[in-house]
Design a protein that fits this description.
Blueprint (H helix, E strand, L loop, with lengths): L1 E2 L9 E5 L6 E6 L7 E6 H7 L9 E8 L2 E10 L2 E8 H14 L11 H4 L8 H12 L9
Antiparallel strand pairs: 1-7, 2-3, 3-4, 5-6, 6-7
Length: about 150
């Protein structure tokens, strides 16, 4: 981990994936059970970040070379500060392959409960929202192939 004004130091990171929420991954910073911080962000950021800089705002990923090997720089920002993590690309790729074995990228949107996700959007929540969300679902472009 690299933080502003401090030397780089090793830190325990754990990636997680839940097939019930296939668009997101979790990153736990710190040992499980100890004081840890959990970030949730798009799985797609890790995949795309291996090829080109991606992300806006709080989570950004870009390819780098670390000790002569392909790696990813994962930058997390919050009101309390910014931290950058250097991740071996092969470890991130292995994690992503395991997640894609559980839920393929092009199947993500089919597993999302759109009525729950859109419950706070005016006109989409409550009784009539489910029909609208289902009707519009087919019209939304698949982001997995973009």
């Amino acid at each position: 981990m690299i933080t502003e004004g401090e030397p780089a130091r090793p830190v325990h990171l754990t990636f997680g994936f839940d097939a019930a929420d296939p668009i997101a991954v979790t990153l736990t910073v710190g040992a499980t059970g100890a004081e840890s911080i959990v970030w949730r962000f798009a799985r797609r950021l890790l995949a795309d970040g291996a090829r080109r800089p991606v992300g806006l705002g709080d989570v950004r990923v870009r390819p780098i070379v670390l000790r002569g090997q392909p790696a990813l720089a994962l930058c997390l920002s919050s009101p309390s500060g910014t931290a950058e993590f250097e991740l071996p690309a092969r470890d991130v790729a292995a994690f992503l392959w395991r997640t894609y074995a559980m839920v393929a990228a092009d199947a993500e949107s089919g597993l999302i409960d759109w009525s729950s996700e859109l419950r706070f959007v005016p006109g989409m929540g409550a009784a009539g929202g489910h029909r609208r969300a289902r009707a519009r679902h087919g019209a939304w472009p698949h982001h997995a192939g973009a």
